[in-house]
Each structure stands twice: as structure tokens, then as C-alpha cells.
Amino acid sequence: xxxxxCLFMIIPSLANAQRQEAVEPIxxxxxxYMVRQERKPLNKLDSFIARHRIPLKLLNRVYGYQQxxxxxxxxxxxxxxxxxxxxxIVFKGSFRTLTELRTHNRLPALQSNFVQGRxxxxxxxxxxPETNEAFSYGPAASSLxxxxxxxxxxxxxxxxxxxxxxxxxxxxxxxxxxxPAVHFTQEAAINAYASKNYYKDLYFNLxxxxxxxxxxxxxxxxxxxxxxxxxxxPLGPIAIKTSYTYSGNNFSNSxxxxxxxxxxxxxxxxxxxxxxxxxxxLSPTQQRSFSNSxxxxxxxxxxxxxxxxxxxxxxxxxxxxxxxxxxxNMLSILSTRQQDKExxxxxxxxxxxxxxxxxxxxxxxxxxxxxxxxxxxxxxxFNSSVxxxxxxxxxxxxINYQPDDLSYRYTRDANDILLSASAFYNPGALxxxxxxxNGFYTSNTAAVNAAFLPFFNLKFGARRIMTDLDMTLTGGxxxxxxxxxxxxxxxxxxxxxxxxxxVAGYRPVKEALRYDGLAPIEHGEWTSNIExxxxxxxxxxxxxxxxxxxxxVYPFHxxxxxxxxxxxxxxxxxxxxxxTIREAAEQxxxxxxxxxxxxxxxxxxxxxxxxxxNGLPVxxxxxxxxxxxxxxxxxxxxxxxYIRDDDGRLIIGNDGFPVVQNATKVIGDPNPDFILKSMxxxxxxxxQLSLALEWKKGGVAWNGTQAALDYYGRSAVSARDRGITGYxxxxxxxxxxxxxxxxxxxxxxxxxxxNRWVRYGEAGVATDYIQRTDYLRIRDIRLSYTVKLNRFNxxxxxxxxxxxxxxxxPYKGADPAQFxxxxxxxxxxxxxxxxxxxxxxxNILFQx
Length: 848
Fold this sequence. Notes:
Elements: H1 2-17, H2 29-38, E1 57-58, E2 68-73, E3 78-83, E4 87-104, E5 117-120, E6 123-126, E7 144-146, E8 159-161, E9 181-196, E10 199-214, E11 221-235, E12 238-251, H3 259-269, E13 281-283, E14 286-287, H4 297-301, E15 307-322, E16 325-344, E17 355-376, E18 382-402, E19 406-425, E20 430-443, E21 450-466, E22 469-482, E23 521-534, E24 538-558, E25 561-581, E26 591-609, E27 616-620, E28 625-628, E29 636-642, E30 660-668, E31 674-684, E32 687-697, E33 700-703, H5 704-712, H6 716-721, E34 770-772, E35 775-788, E36 795-803, E37 807-808, E38 829-830, E39 837-847
Parallel strand pairs: 1-3, 33-38
Antiparallel strand pairs: 2-3, 4-9, 4-39, 5-6, 7-8, 9-10, 10-11, 11-12, 12-15, 13-14, 15-16, 16-17, 17-18, 18-19, 19-20, 20-21, 21-22, 22-23, 23-24, 24-25, 25-26, 26-31, 27-28, 28-29, 29-30, 31-32, 32-35, 33-34, 35-36, 35-37, 36-39
């Protein structure tokens, strides 16, 4: 009751206390300090609290890899993400060291039984170097011994029959010039870039490589240096890139004249009874060799035949992009200098008084390439563009020969312009494309300029034509013109003035007299491709092409000059099939693998030869060469053959041997039927095994090396067959009756010049030495192991490999893929072509 009484007493006072006044917050500095300590800075999204269910529009893109530093919200309902730029400076690099051991691959089969000499008075006899005997048709070394006398050509004395000397048996000397070669490479590279929001604003690359090699030809060393530098950076809407490359090589001996082939030739022809190692001079002007018609291989290697090659290349490119417009320009300059010093000291077989030739060649190429690209109607499924390209080239070549005081100067300024348009349509499962245009070509060396050089390309692509199967068809045509490069020396054509037996005197000092006044080489090419891709793993690409070339330029001799002319038309057609098998993205098996198999076949045919040039030799020698002949394959081999009757039977002379035809004819086609290559890759964790194979089917070559070895009695064949008697050649006599005359291949009672091999000369009968050049080779085997060193993805890779390990071929010489005197593209002619190299290598790569 007392509580109720108190309530009634208070109510009047409460009613009197209600007043309409604003409530002021109580401000406490201690409270505010505690709030600031406990609460983190307000998140920008807190502002959304007051805007529940109000839609906001985002003004810019949101990047998942970058966190917004703030959000700017306007009263109009828009949100803008404000990002803090991500700045990075990244350094990467690598260091590689490579060591290789190289040995020569297969060599021609030689005999090691019979010594220097020939048949004398019905018996074979040793004839020493003082007789200048060049042949090895003497007696067996096993029937001879030394007499111990003082003899300048052998420290052990002269050779005589067993029982008439000092009892010391004749030695079989090894005059090989090959040794295991060691190749060493070190390369370091630094890559650095600065980026803003993961876009490179500045990049810098620098690499330096140094190589040294003791080649597998003794007394030869090569070394080289390469420096590469790239810098790129943006300047507003313009991207700038610069590059500089320096390359330099030094060689102990220049092989421009086939000098090393000449060394190889003399080493093979040296009789087993003569040692080149025992000295290469008898006096300051007389070399010590097995014959005055030949050279001591080591004497040749002691000549000063150094070669130097230097090249500087620099470029600056600018790219401007603004909306649908792109402008590009690249300026580049290439400066090359090559010095070849070719010397034969007094006493050389072809140069008894010695010979010296200094060749200095310099070339300067300046190029300006400009491009304009304008995109129009750049829509979601359709886009098109027009473009213009201008290529200006300035070529300048200077060649000097001393002491001949011969000088050649060539200069060319050329403009190549291309105007084009393209359109592409992609309506879902289809890809349709069309591009077309026209080119223009002018130069100060061309007799005529070209203003109609059209081209067009078509594309049709279809995805999912069957389950997981895509298909793409492309095709096109283009016409374009070209001219011979001024820095491509034509001096190799001087070899065509010599027979194969005269190569010791080969000294090419004549270059093309001029390049101006020629018509441009005209090319018209049709191409088509069909590509199938299944499940993104299997890809089959077929490429077909036909190229017709008119007015191809070749050198020829006129009087004392080497001239050029538009001589022939060439038609080349071919096909290439490539099958690629990739790993599936979802594969998780321990061993992963991928494979690439390619099949290439082509045919080259000379469609016409101008005027009186039909049969023009283009590579080789005057007696055996590759020629231009209407209707024949390009590079058809021309040489002599035996006389045959209408049925193709050999005509046998009255001495029982086949009769040689004086005229030459086509005797072989060096072009292959096809080339099949395959590359296989297997990976298991950090291990990777790679294998590359190559099979070439078809094609032949003239084995002039075998012909010369047979002629001089140094081949295994001449040793094996020199004892054959009573042999009857299959053929008919001049009267047309079957031949029945027996012959001996090497009759000691007949002059040496009448034996089976010497009678036909050093080159033999060309058709006897046409051999198949099919081959199957293991191109590369490589095993690699990669170790990740840390979480920054630094890694170390160890690799061991074998290159050109095995070559299976029916060819009887060295590697049939080697070129004559290192002349590029000269196939089908083998005259002491150097063997290929077999390489064992170890590579260590450190990447950081």
C-alpha cells in the first residue's frame, strides 16, 4: 500500500517535468579515444549500409588479381573502384655450359695391304716417292721389309723384298687427319623488366655466348662470340624496341676453295707405305710427299689459311596504336665483313712457287619496313581491315682480291609495296576468311619493274563437324618477284672450268661482273591446306603447293668473265603431311608422351631453258656436273657412259673391256622420292627423353671419291678385285655378237694404264659411280633431368644427347647428305666431301 501511495505522489511531478527540448549528446574524450583504439578504419563498403536495396552501377572493370584501395560512390548511384598501381621490377636470367665430343661419321672403305708402286717386268714392285709414283698397285706390304739405309722419305730406310733387308717388316702407316673434336660453349643471359599492373613498361635483354672448338680435322680450331641486346619501352601511345647483335667467328683454315676437302683427299690417297708424320719438307722449297703430283696433308695444314667473319646488326622499331589504327616502322642495318686468306707455300703440287690469295668481302644492308593497319567494322562476329606495307632495302657489297687487284662493286635499292584487305566472319561454329591485295616491285638493278603482283587467300573452318572434330581449309595464290642477293658469292662457278682431276689448282677469284640489267625472277605459287583436329590431341595437317618460277638467274662463263642471265623456268610441286599427337589436358599417368611425324615429297622440273643455254652446268666440274635441261629434274646429274646398242647392251671392245662414249648424258636425279621425319617426346616426372629419326628415300649421287680411290688403287674394292682373272663382261662386240673375251682386272704383264680402273681415268666412267643416297639416321637422342631449386621457380636442367648417331645407307662413300666443297644446295656430286660429325654432348642450364 505504501508503494502505491508513493506512486501517486510522483506522477504529478513527472507530468510537470515533460518539456519539448533537443537532447544534446554527452561528449567524452575518454570514450572517443577508446572507440578509436578498438575499431579499425571504416571499410568503404560501410557506406552501403545506408543504401540497402538501392542498385549501383560499376563504372570500371574489377581485376581479380588486384585489390581496390577505395570505392568512390556518387549520389547518382555509381561506384568507381580506385586501384593502387602494382609496380614490379623483375630480374631473370640463365647460364648455360655445353661440352661436346665430336667424331667423324662413316668414311670410304680403304685398302691397307698394298704399297706404293705398280707392275714392272711382269711383277708388282714397290716404287718409292723419289719416283713420283702416284699409284698404290705395288706388292703386298707383308712381302716387304726395310733395309735400314739413310732414306729421306722414311726413317726406317727403303723397302725391299723379305730376306734382302734388315728383317724389320714394312709398316702400315696411318695417314688419317681426323681426331676427336671438343666443342665448348658458355652462354649467359639476363632478362629484366619493369611493369605496372602486370604490363611491361620497360624490358631489357642481354646475352653473351662464347664458343671454342678443336675440330675433328687436326690442326684446326674455330672460335666465336655472340652478343645480343634488346631494349623496349613505351613513350605514350608509341612502343619503342631496339636491338643490337654482334657475331664474330675465326677459323684456322678457310674452306671457301675446298681447301679442307683437298687435305682430306691427299690423306686418303697417301699409300700405306708412306708416313706423312715423319716430316713435310725436304728443303725450304720442296715438300716431303709421296709424289710430286700430290701433297702431304700435314704440309697443307701448316699453311696460313685463316678466315675471319664479323657481323653487326641493329634495329629500331616504333609501333603506334590509337583506336583502330596501327602504325609500325622498323629501321635495321646489317654490316658483314668476311676475310679469307688462302695460301699454298712453295713446293705445293699445283703451286710449286707458292700461291697467296686474300679475299675481303664487305656488305651493308639497310632496311626500312613500314606498315599501316586500319580496322573497320570490328564487330563481335565480323571484323575487317585494310593494310599497306612498304619495304625499302639498300644492299651494298664490295669484294676485293689481292694480289690480283680485282675489285667488284654491287649496289641495289629496291622497293616492295603491298596493299591488302581482309575480312573474317565467325558465326559460332564456322570460321570464314578472305584476304586479297596487290604488290609492286621496283629496283635500280631490275630491267623492268612490276606493278601487278596479286594475291588472295581463302579460309573455311568448321568446329564440331563430328564429335570433337574440327576442320580448317585454306588456299591461295600469290605472285611475287625476287632478285639474287648481292652478298651471295658466285665464285663457286669457277669450279665448273676444271675437271675433277684438276681441283688442286682451284682458285676462284672471279665474281659476277654485274647484277644490273636482269629481269626480276617471277614466282607464281598456289597453296592449299587442310587441317583436322580431334579432341585437341590429334592434329593432321596436309599442305599442297605448286610454284612456277620464270627467269631464274644462273651464272655462266663468257670469255674471261662470269656473267648472269635469266636462263630457266622451274616448276616445283609438292606435299607435306604432319601428324601431331599431344598429351590430353586431363591425363595424370606417370609417363606422358607426344609425337610429331612429317612426310615430305616434292618434284623439281625444268620447264624451259632460254636460247642456247640448254644443258648449262650449274654445279660440279666440267666433266661431271649438275645441269639445266628442259624437261629434266632440277640439278640432273650429267656425265659419261658406256656405248650401248639399241637394246641397252654394252658394246665390248676388242680388248674385252666396255667402250666409253665420248658424249655426256643425264645419268641420275639427286632429288629424293620422299623424306619422313619423326620426333618423339616422353616425360616421367623430372625426366624427359626425346628421339628424332629421319628417313630419306630415293635420289642418287655421283661418288667421285670412290672413282678416284679406285683409280689410284687405294680403295678396298681395287684391293679385293685386282686379282680377278678370266672375267667376261656382259655385252656384245661391235659386230653385235655376244662377248666372250676374258680379261684380267690387273694384269702384271700389261701396262698399268690398261687395268680395270686406270684405263678410264681418275673420274672413271660416271655411270659406274652413280649410287643410291637413301638413308635412315638417328638424328638426335636426348635425356634431360630438371630440378626445381626453390619456390621462386629457379631450376637446373642437366641434358646428355647424341646427334647423328647412326646413318644406315647403301651409299658407299661418306654421308650422302654432305655438300660439295661446302657449297650450299649442291647435291648429287661427291668428290671427297667431308664426312659428317657424330656428337656426344652434355648441357647444363641454370635458370633463375
